[in-house]
Design a protein that fits this description.
alpha+beta, four-stranded antiparallel beta sheet
Length: 332
């Protein structure tokens, strides 16, 4: 995506590699100095061969224009500052700050500042088997900026695991990938516990009442996941967990950070995004995902993704099967 010439890119790469400490050189290549962009800003993540991970000691001055990928990206700023735009927000990272960018969020890394940061890319497929990973949606629906001054206890727990993860990756000891993913899962669990412990009604560790609510609403999300195409009303959902309509509405928002209908809509749109990579017509997809007419589907789809179903399908065809399931566009 860069407008730099090949020789300029090579010069930047050589300069950056010369600044990388020996202990942070990549385990599989001697000249890893950048990232591979395909047409239309899609990045094909270059994981270490036969793994699902790439951690990069980044001290390059140049930035990376708008792009997206199917990996979770984590930026750990260790020296000086770094600026990132992701989704519709701009983040100014200070030393020690950590930024989580969920898969398929369009983002830009803004260069021009000397410094050091670790950029981590993870394939989340190995973690998708865990039921609780989707319960992090309230925290990870968009970028998550973790700063020590905001959440000191959580930050210290997460930062310590990041340091361990970096050591494991670059030491390349036996079972390093499993060990790295273990740290990543522990980080996810710490973030989830911190989120739910701060709620009034869903803290499994503080009371039996909180655990009961947590289990009930977790089961409800499983149910929505399986029946999103059906006509599930708010009253149906409230009855499923055994609460009145008004009590349920408050608790659902506290649990997920959004309304019941918005959550259901997002689930339907994610299903539609996958189907748009098939030969099904847009009309057929709209009905299969629980919409009663094409107009409602198109309006909802554009509201969530920023583009129409047809435009999304055109992107999918250009990516030849490599299209991300979910793209969040930046504000124009």
């Amino acid at each position: 995506m860069s407008s730099l010439t090949a020789s300029e890119i090579a010069r930047f790469r050589d300069k950056a590699l010369g600044s990388v400490p020996a202990k942070y050189r990549q385990p599989d290549v001697d000249d890893y100095g950048g990232r591979t962009m395909k047409d239309d800003s899609l990045e094909i993540v270059d994981y270490v061969p036969q793994t699902h991970v790439r951690i990069w000691y980044n001290c390059q001055m140049e930035g990376y224009e708008l792009h997206h990928h199917a990996a979770l990206e984590i930026i750990y700023c260790v020296q000086n500052t770094y600026t990132v735009t992701a989704g519709r927000e701009t983040f100014s990272l200070g030393e020690g700050d950590i930024l989580f960018i969920p898969p398929n969020v369009i983002h830009r890394l803004i260069g021009g500042v000397q410094g050091v940061r670790f950029i981590m890319l993870f394939d989340l497929e190995p973690a998708s088997m865990f039921r609780e990973t989707r319960l992090l949606a309230p925290v990870m629906n968009g970028p998550f900026h973790l700063r020590k001054k905001d959440r000191p206890d959580l930050y210290c727990a997460v930062q310590e695991r990041f340091e361990r993860m970096i050591d494991l990756y670059f030491s390349q000891q036996a079972m390093w990938e499993i060990s790295v993913y273990t740290e990543l899962l522990n980080i996810a669990a710490a973030i989830g516990r911190d989120y739910f412990d701060k709620t009034n009604s869903f803290s499994p560790s503080s009371s039996e009442h909180g655990k009961i609510n947590y289990d009930k609403f977790s089961a409800l999300l499983d149910y929505i996941d399986e029946h999103y195409s059906e006509d599930i009303s708010l009253m149906d959902a409230a009855s499923y967990v055994g609460f009145s309509k008004f009590h349920f509405t408050r608790l659902f928002h506290e649990y997920t950070g959004t309304t019941f209908y918005d959550y259901l809509l997002r689930r339907r749109i994610r299903a539609a995004q996958k189907m748009l990579g098939t030969d099904l017509s847009v009309t057929e997809i709209s009905y299969r995902c629980g919409f009663h007419n094409l107009t409602s589907f198109s309006r909802s789809f554009r509201s969530f993704t920023g583009i129409s179903p047809s435009a999304y399908r055109n992107y999918a065809e250009r990516y030849h099967g490599k299209f991300s399931d979910r793209i969040i566009l930046p504000e124009e």
